[in-house]
Amino acid sequence: MTEPVPATAENIAAAAAVLRQGGVVAIPTETVYGLAANAFDAIAVARVFEIKRRPSFDPLIVHIGDLRMLESVTSAVPATARRLVERFWPGPLTIVLPKSEAVPSIVTASAPTVAVRWPSHPVAQAVIRQAGVPLAAPSANRFGEISPTRAQHVGRALGELVDMILDGGPSEYGLESTIVSLVPSPAVLRPGAIEAEAIAEVIGPLSEGRTLGEGMVTPGSLPHHYAPRTPVLLLDHAGEAESGRERAGWLGLGPEPEGYAYARSLSRSGNLREAAAALFDAMHELDGRSLERIDVEPVPERGIGVAIMNRLRRAAAVHS
Questions:
Q1: Model confidence over 140-162: pLDDT tens digits?
Q2: Which residues are within 8 A (CB) of 31 and not within 5 positions of it... i.e. 6 or more apart?
Q3: Which residues pair with 311 in a beta bridge?
Q4: Phi, psi (degrees; rounded to nearest 5) at 102
Q5: pTM of the predicted model, to two decimals?
């Protein structure tokens, strides 16, 4: 059983060595914890798919530590991409660009594009820098389950399968990165920690929900995803669920309602950033309480609320 270890300088150096040798390491990022392997090592990346039980048609995001690495994994970086890089990197934005021949097809699910981001978490940056290679790093959980925002979440789910788990504390944002494709034109493929409005301010109008093309999948975009084992019921309005509360859990904004076996407010003040950071951690907590269901009240779909509702709808869809 691989237990999380603190992200000391010594352990970061050890993690980088494991990655250079073809191993798989769980690392903290500002979004969620990632399951990292050398992006140029097809065998190591195949192990990531195996550990996650992730279908081979679902591509991975490549994490870089500097602009030199960006040039190594892409064949072209248009001016629009450079404007996004200058504004949002390092940070929770993934950009889809034409891939270079150096990136194995297993990383991109044989697509001609690669999804790239430069994480801002200091531990992730240090690991990438010391490993000296870009890292393919999807969320460090079983495919389709709740993304991990703490090292302990990774340990419980994958501790017997990974070589090392670095504990860098709870994730700052708690939601995966926003994915923007610039191929062939700007479009938001997955809402995330950076709002679409902020991106549009930098590069102009963009569309939402466009796919990459026939037979191509965006990382983390399948309709059933981010789900606990406990069924999730997405309520139409506050107070909708009146029956069976004594065997159910509750998630939402504001004060906790009465009558539930367990209730957790994502933000008592209704702060959506606070709610986003707490969402997956709260789901992990309720999923471990042997409840019959989890009732979730919708949040306003503005700003990061769009990303929160994206995750909640897909969690609920698993059991619908």
A1: 999 989 999 999 999 999 999 99
A2: 92, 119, 171, 172, 173, 174, 175, 176, 177, 192, 193
A3: none
A4: -70, -20
A5: 0.92
